[in-house]
Amino acid sequence: MRSFMRLTRTRRVGILALLALLPLAGCGSSDPDYYTLRPWPGQAQGGGPLTLKLRTPGVASSLDRDYIVRSDEGYKLKLAHDAAWSEPLADMIGQTLAQDLQQRLPGTTVFTQAGAISTEAQAVLELDVSRFAQDPAGNVEIAATLSVARPDGGLAASHALHLVTAPDGPGLDALVAALSRLLGQVADEAAREARALGSAPVALLAPEPSRT
């Protein structure tokens, strides 16, 4: 009986000790800081299509993570374990790029695939992002493939982009600002391609093929 009581007291002490450690364990973890891309101003010039649809960008799976990919150093990715994007990266890139394009293309209605607008598009833009972080030299880079085309499969322009800039300083604030600036350069190129397509009467364009 005494042995049983001693065993019971030992278990109680052990449980109390574990309960006492729980608040300390909680102090070691905290919510990450959340970051968002911002539109970057550029030159406004008309002459683009009346409507431009931006499909949801493709993002490499190595970039689609819970935490921000801070750098891509050859065979090694470094994550910022105390920082995350405020929404899925593909959606954020798409929304920011749409705002950049709207500012650069006055007279053009720019809308995203994920939005509620369902009007006929005179041009469709696609972006496939493979790099979106710092390189081994500490510069910030975006590597992507850009395509701007008529929805009927007619006139089209597609090419690879590799944009690099030096961040204004250390830290994630400078990294995110540099990525926003580079995304503005992507919008500059996309706006030039959209102007090259020009506008066309919507009635002359075939409906955009549906995507599942």
Number of separate structural domains:
2
Largest sheet: 6 strands, mixed
Mean pLDDT: 83
Residue share in β-strands? 25-35%
Radius of gyration based on Cα positions: 25 Å
What's the number of helices? 3
Q: What's the CATH H-level homologous superfamily of the largest domain?
A: ABC-type transport auxiliary lipoprotein component
**What is the CATH architecture annotation of the largest domain?**
3-Layer(aba) Sandwich
Name the shape in a single word. Answer: elongated
Class from secondary-structure proportions = alpha/beta
Share of helix, binned: 25-40%
N-to-C span: 71 Å
Low-confidence stretches: 2-7, 21-28, 202-206
Q: What is the CATH third-level topology name of the largest domain? A: Rossmann fold
The CATH class label of the largest domain is: Alpha Beta
How many strand elements?
10
Give the SSE order as H and E letters. HEEEEEEHEEEEH
Structural notes for this entry:
With 212 residues, the chain is an alpha/beta fold. Helix content is 32%, strand content 28%. The chain has three helices and ten strands; from the N terminus they run αββββββαββββα. α2 (89-104) packs across α3. The longest helix is centred in the first third of the chain and has 26 residues, at 2-27. The termini are far apart. The relative contact order is 0.19. Mean pLDDT is 83; it is low at 2-7, 21-28 and 202-206.
Descriptors for this entry?
212 residues, alpha/beta, Rossmann fold, 2 domains, six-stranded mixed β-sheet, two-stranded parallel sheet, 3 helices, 10 strands, 32% helix, elongated
